[in-house]
Specification:
about 270 residues; mainly beta; about 0% helix; about 50% strand; globular
Length: about 270
C-alpha cells in the first residue's frame, strides 16, 4: 500500500520529482511517460513599463525507468520544446518563437536505506535553446551548454507512515551556475500537495539566498493523478525573487509501453 501511494510525478524536463526539484527515487511501477509543461510569465521590457507574454513549452518530455529493484534504480529522460513571446519588442505586434533545449539524461537511485534515499543524475544538452532576444530566457534552468550534474537526497517519511510528508534536497552544477533545490510533498492516492524552492547562483554569488546576482523561485503546487497510470494534471504558481512570477501547468500521460507486470500471488486452495 505504501509503495502504491508514493508519488511519481515527472517534472519539467523529465525525471521523478516536482516541477524543478528531483526525487532521489525512480518510477518503479510505471511504463514510458509522456509529459508537457508550460511555464508562462509576464516580464517587463528593459527601460519600459511595457510587458510581454512569454512561455516555455517543454514537450515532449519522455521518462522511463528500465531498472527498479530494492537495491538500485535507474531512470532515463529526455525533453525538447519551444519558447514563445508576444510582442517581440515594446509596443510591437509580432510573435517571436524558437526551439528549446534538446536534452537527455539519466538518474541513478539508491533506495534500500530506510527513509533516506540517495541518488544522482546527469544530463547532456545536445542542442541549446535559440537566442532570439527573449525577455527572461532563463525560466527553465538548470541549463548546460554541454554537461550538468546533480546530487539528490530524499527523506521518504512515508516509509514510516502514509500520512507523513516527503522531503527532497538537490545540489548541482551547470553552465548557468550552482543549483540548490528543496521541496516537500504530501501525497495521497491520486492527489498530492507540494512546495519547492530552487536557487540558481552564478559564479561570484554570496550564497544560495543571494537575490542580487542570482535568483530564487518558490513554487507551491498541486497534482491530480498518480503519475504512473492514466493522466496526471499538475498546476503551480511561482513567486520569483530577482525573477518574474510564473504560472506553471503540466500534464503527464502514462503509457503501458515497458510497464512491468505486477507480481502474481497465489490463492488459498484449502484450509486445515
Amino acid at each position: 500500500m505504501l509503495v502504491g501511494m508514493a508519488a511519481a510525478y515527472p517534472g519539467i524536463g523529465g525525471g521523478r520529482g516536482m516541477f524543478r526539484v528531483q526525487n532521489a527515487l525512480v518510477q518503479d511501477d510505471a511504463g514510458l511517460t509522456i509529459g508537457l509543461h508550460i511555464v508562462g510569465r509576464n516580464p517587463k521590457f528593459a527601460g519600459s513599463t511595457e510587458k510581454a507574454w512569454l512561455a516555455d513549452a517543454v514537450a515532449p518530455e519522455l521518462n522511463y525507468a528500465p531498472l527498479a529493484t530494492k537495491w538500485v534504480g535507474a531512470e532515463l529522460f529526455a525533453s525538447w520544446g519551444a519558447i514563445v513571446q508576444y510582442p517581440d519588442v515594446a509596443a510591437g505586434s509580432d510573435i517571436v518563437w524558437g526551439t528549446h533545449d534538446l536534452r537527455a539524461g539519466a538518474k541513478l537511485s539508491i533506495p534500500f536505506i530506510p527513509v533516506l534515499k540517495l541518488g544522482g543524475m546527469a544530463s547532456y544538452t545536445f542542442i541549446d535553446r535559440e537566442d532570439k532576444g527573449f525577455l527572461d530566457p532563463g525560466a527553465m534552468p538548470p541549463c548546460a551548454d554541454n554537461f550538468g550534474w546533480m546530487g539528490l537526497a530524499t527523506l521518504q517519511f512515508q516509509d514510516l507512515s502514509a500520512s507523513l510528508p516527503n522531503v527532497m534536497v538537490n545540489y548541482g552544477e551547470t553552465e548557468c551556475g550552482t543549483v540548490y533545490g528543496a521541496g516537500v510533498e504530501l501525497v495521497a492516492s491520486g492527489f498530492a500537495l507540494f512546495a519547492e524552492a530552487r536557487s540558481l547562483q552564478p559564479e561570484g554569488s554570496s550564497g544560495f539566498l543571494d537575490t542580487d546576482t542570482g535568483e530564487i523561485r518558490l513554487t507551491p503546487g498541486v497534482a491530480f493523478g498518480t503519475g504512473t497510470s492514466g493522466v496526471t494534471l499538475k498546476a503551480g504558481y511561482t513567486f520569483g525573487f530577482n525573477a518574474p512570477n510564473e504560472a506553471v501547468l503540466g500534464i503527464v500521460i502514462a503509457t503501458p509501453f515497458g510497464k512491468r507486470t505486477p507480481p502474481q500471488f497465489g490463492t488459498i486452495a484449502a484450509k486445515v
